[in-house]
Amino acid sequence: MASQSPQPTEPPREERKRIPWIARYTLIIVLIVAIIAIAYFLPYVFRPLLPTGDCRAPTVGLSATPSFNGYRIDVLGVTEHKNLGLYGVSVIKDNLSWSSGLEILSDGELIIGPAGEHLNFTDMNGDGYLSRWDIFTLDSLTSGSQYEVVLFFTDCDHEITREIIIAP
Q1: pLDDT digit string, tens, across residues 75-129
Q2: What is the pLDDT of residue 34?
Q3: Strands of the 70-78 sheet, one edge to the other
Q4: How far is CA 48 from CA 40, 44, 71, 121, 143, in A?
Q5: Are residues 115 and 147 in contact, defined by beta-carbon separation less than 8 angstroms?
Q6: Is the pLDDT reported for residue 48 higher than 80?
């Protein structure tokens, strides 16, 4: 008698639990909404960690004209309406800075130079924003000296514009 080797038997198939179709589609929709929300808010979460090379500083146009005892520098236009506190100004006389840092833009006298020069700013419409028709005045200049009025956007220390004046 030949002995027969036992044949392996398949275990009984357990019926898979099925997720109802409405639950499947609800789960898919929730996952899509979560991915969109994460993609939308992710730049705001990591913005402080991003480099400032993508600074969106406004463009400002200046024009200097001689005035009594100095120069008047008119703001000809600004591409974005931003608060004065977001701007800094510096004056360079004959390649030397008047101050150790930027002066935050505000209405009135900003900087007094080493030889008694004055840089003033007037917010002509008093709205607290840098806008067209605002005026810088540079007074009591030393004859023959070169002055550079440099305007910065302080959110990212980006130089916006520079007006060069040679005192007569």
Answers
A1: 999 998 899 999 999 999 998 887 767 889 899 888 888 888 899 999 999 999 9
A2: 87
A3: 60-67, 70-78, 135-139, 118-122, 108-112
A4: 16, 8, 40, 32, 46
A5: no
A6: no
What lies within 8 Å, CB to CB, of 167 at 6+ separation is 70, 141, 142, 143, 144, 145, 146, 147
Give the residue-averaged pLDDT of 120-142. 93
Residue-by-residue DSSP string for the chain? -PPPPPPP-PPPPPPPPPPPHHHHHHHHHHHHHHHHHHHHHHHHHHGGGS-GGG--PPPEEEEEEEETTEEEEEEEEESS--BGGGEEEEEEETTEESSSSPEEP-SEEEEE-TTS-EEEEE-TT-SSB--TT-EEEEESPPTT-EEEEEEEETTTTEEEEEEEEE--
pLDDT in tens, 6-29: 666 655 555 556 667 788 888 899
Tokens of 151: 């305007």
